């Protein structure tokens, strides 16, 4: 593979016209990336139908995963050279990574200190929440699509709802708030289940965020026709709750927020497909095997692991990361007839 294939600047070649060599992590459309998503593993202990097949996937071999030291070095470059201000650890399931607490501590030791969050399915969170808080974790997002145990088992192919609920309670107890609950609605049960799910979140003080299902399933079975769209979710919720637009500024947040029943509590709807927010995207992504992706839907990657293991210095790693982000596409193009679903599923990218 050549350096050009990897998206790296060729030695002796000037950077892409207009690409700054320092300062914020810019793309050629003027967006600044400050939010880093780090996938720690592609493995998972659930098998959500919209993400993974029942039998799981061919996991990345350990030798291809970044080590804790490699991760710590890339985090340092991201924060101290590229202006990253928030880091979210995800996967696969980040709680199954042996490096999670150590990597959170490495991120928390950086200055300026980034905001540190984890997106998890919640299994095992009851055991880990206090320890992760101590390591420097600020917040968690817990993925939970339904509070109906039978539907939970159908969607995730595991009978583990009680473990997720225990994980949520432990996260609240450990002070990892505000706790967000991420829900991707199953087309068979989602509209029936979203009302009790919101009631559950309101009762416990969790912020529900409903995400439109995206074409990132390993089976490539997604179709827009099967997706429950934001408008349908809102009209279902409106039959049970009064929803008013949240007056706060939305900024680069993907969720459109609604105040529920005249109170402070909000519900968010992330219309990734029906109303993309790519124009305000502030994300850059690092996969568990050390690839930079400028977008969830990128079809190209930049191999920082090869550079790291080939002895590259920090300047070269920084330049490669900047070059990858400079080439970030304007948008995901899901609704374009020429759209190509990326080969990596969500679990191997990090959502
Ligand atoms: N395993 C962890 C979890 O489930 O929270 C972290 C990784 S998971 C890939 C991150 C988020 O991506 C979850 O909230 C999950 O619901 C969401 N997700 C997975 N597949 C998706 C898809 N096809 N479309 C939209 N969101 C998806
Ligand atoms: Fe695992 Fe998260 Fe994918 Fe579900 S969404 S299979 S919990 S990685």
From TrEMBL:
Report keywords, A-Z: 4Fe-4S, GTP-binding, Iron, Iron-sulfur, Lyase, Metal-binding, Molybdenum cofactor biosynthesis, Nucleotide-binding, S-adenosyl-L-methionine
Ranges for region Disordered: 1-23
Keyword Protein transport on entry: no
Annotated residues for binding of [4Fe-4S] cluster 2: 278, 281, 295
Stated EC number for the protein is: 4.1.99.22
The positions annotated for binding GTP are 37, 88, 119, 180, 283-285
List of residues binding S-adenosyl-L-methionine: 50, 92, 143, 214
Q: Any note on cofactor binding?
A: Binds 2 [4Fe-4S] clusters. Binds 1 [4Fe-4S] cluster coordinated with 3 cysteines and an exchangeable S-adenosyl-L-methionine and 1 [4Fe-4S] cluster coordinated with 3 cysteines and the GTP-derived substrate.
Recorded metabolic or biological pathway in which this protein acts: Cofactor biosynthesis; molybdopterin biosynthesis
Q: Where is the composition biased (Low complexity)?
A: 1-10
What's the cofactor?
Answer: [4Fe-4S] cluster
Please list the reactions this protein catalyses: GTP + AH2 + S-adenosyl-L-methionine = (8S)-3',8-cyclo-7,8-dihydroguanosine 5'-triphosphate + 5'-deoxyadenosine + L-methionine + A + H(+)
Q: What PROSITE patterns does the database record attribute to this sequence?
A: MOAA_NIFB_PQQE, RADICAL_SAM
Q: Give the enzyme's main class according to its UniProt record, as a single word.
A: lyase
Q: Where does [4Fe-4S] cluster 1 bind?
A: 44, 48, 51
Alphabetical GO biological process terms: Mo-molybdopterin cofactor biosynthetic process
Question: Which Gene Ontology terms cover its molecular function?
Answer: 4 iron, 4 sulfur cluster binding; cyclic pyranopterin monophosphate synthase activity; GTP 3',8'-cyclase activity; GTP binding; metal ion binding; S-adenosyl-L-methionine binding
* Segments forming domain Radical SAM core: 28-246
Q: Which family does it belong to?
A: Belongs to the radical SAM superfamily. MoaA family.
| Function field | Catalyzes the cyclization of GTP to (8S)-3',8-cyclo-7,8-dihydroguanosine 5'-triphosphate.
PANTHER family, alphabetized: MOLYBDENUM COFACTOR BIOSYNTHESIS PROTEIN 1, MOLYBDOPTERIN COFACTOR SYNTHESIS PROTEIN A
Q: How does it assemble?
A: Monomer and homodimer.
HAMAP family reported for this sequence:
MoaA_B
Name of protein:
GTP 3',8-cyclase
Please give the organism: Mycolicibacterium diernhoferi
Q: Which gene encodes it?
A: moaA
């Amino acid at each position: 593979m050549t350096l050009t294939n990897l998206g790296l600047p060729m030695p002796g070649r000037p950077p892409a016209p207009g690409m700054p060599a320092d300062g914020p992590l810019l793309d050629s459309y003027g967006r600044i990336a400050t939010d880093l998503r780090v996938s720690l593993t592609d493995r998972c202990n659930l098998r959500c139908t919209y993400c993974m097949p029942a039998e799981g996937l061919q996991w990345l071999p350990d030798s291809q995963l970044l080590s804790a030291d490699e991760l710590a070095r890339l985090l340092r470059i991201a924060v101290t050279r590229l202006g990253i201000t928030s880091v979210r650890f995800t996967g696969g399931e980040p709680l199954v990574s042996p490096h999670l607490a150590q990597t959170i501590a490495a991120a928390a030791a950086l200055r300026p200190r980034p905001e540190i969050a984890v997106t998890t399915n919640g299994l095992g969170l009851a055991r880990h929440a206090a320890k992760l808080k101590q390591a420097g974790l600020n917040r968690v997002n817990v993925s939970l699509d339904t509070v109906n145990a039978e539907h939970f088992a159908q969607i995730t192919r595991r009978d583990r709802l009680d473990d997720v609920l225990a994980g949520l309670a432990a996260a609240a107890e450990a002070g990892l708030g505000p706790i967000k609950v991420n829900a991707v609605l199953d087309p068979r049960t989602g509209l029936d289940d979203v009302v009790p799910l919101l009631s559950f979140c309101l009762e416990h003080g969790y912020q529900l965020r409903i995400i439109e299902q995206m074409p990132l399933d390993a089976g490539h079975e997604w179709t827009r026709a099967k997706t429950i769209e934001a408008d349908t979710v809102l009209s279902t919720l409106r039959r049970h709750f009064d929803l008013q637009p949240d007056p706060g500024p939305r900024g680069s947040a993907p969720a459109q927020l609604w105040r529920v029943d005249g109170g402070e509590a909000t519900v968010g709807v992330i219309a990734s497909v029906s109303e993309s927010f790519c124009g305000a995207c502030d994300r850059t992504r690092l996969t568990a095997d050390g690839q930079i992706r400028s977008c969830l839907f990128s079809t190209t990657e930049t191999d920082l692991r090869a550079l790291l293991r080939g002895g590259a210095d920090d300047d070269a790693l920084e330049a490669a990361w900047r070059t990858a982000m400079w080439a970030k596409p304007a948008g995901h193009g899901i609704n374009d007839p020429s759209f190509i679903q990326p080969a990596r599923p969500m679990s191997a990218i990090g959502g």
